[in-house]
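Hi Q.,

Before the meeting this afternoon, I wanted you to have the magnesium ion prediction in hand. No need to reply - just skim if you have a minute. The sequence and ligand are here:
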Amino acid sequence: MAAKASNPDGTWYAGDIDRLVVTEDEIKQRTAELAKQVAADYADRDGLLLVGVLKGAIMFMADFSRALGLPVALEFMAVSSYGQGATSSGTVRILKDLDGDISGKHVIVIEDIIDSGLTLSWLLKYLASRGPASVEVVALLRKPDAVKVDVPVRYIGFDIPNEFVVGYGLDYAERYRELPYVGVLKPEVYTRA
Ligand code: IMP
Ligand code: MG
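Predicted structure with the ligand bound:
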């Protein structure tokens, strides 16, 4: 497909972005800071396991794991919340489970974004039930509603406003995940056929 003429930087997506929320440089810098912090906290522990939550966490997982500089194993889970609505239970369906045993491991959950916090809250209970040595969370982004749910997130990249964002793993209708930054879409993108 030909690139659209209206795109200032020559990418197919720049014309769809209203404004940036977190730039590529900010992501790089903050990822390095978080990695440094986690590496210091986990320096004396063996059996470090990063659990990425598909699909949104893939970009952050790739960059964070490489920045960490500690030996880690990587696992992925895919989950889907039941319905779109406010199920206070936060019931979640497992689409892809862990491949291996996590008992005795130091688990670090890698999340793209925490919004209501329901997914993560459920996930932490699930992981805790499988006997890990410890579980902590690294989330790149956090929205304001997340503070209403009591989810212990030890490492946060950025607190962002309560808006729908795409890029760096986050999608709208399965698109925009490959963008190098996090931004807000122009309103017309949502009304396009
Ligand atoms: P929560 O259970 O409400 O915290 O939902 C978290 C999940 O919803 C994230 O892992 C994302 O997949 C998705 N999500 C939440 N906010 C956004 C957003 O602004 N853009 C894209 N996906 C989002
Ligand atoms: Mg999504």
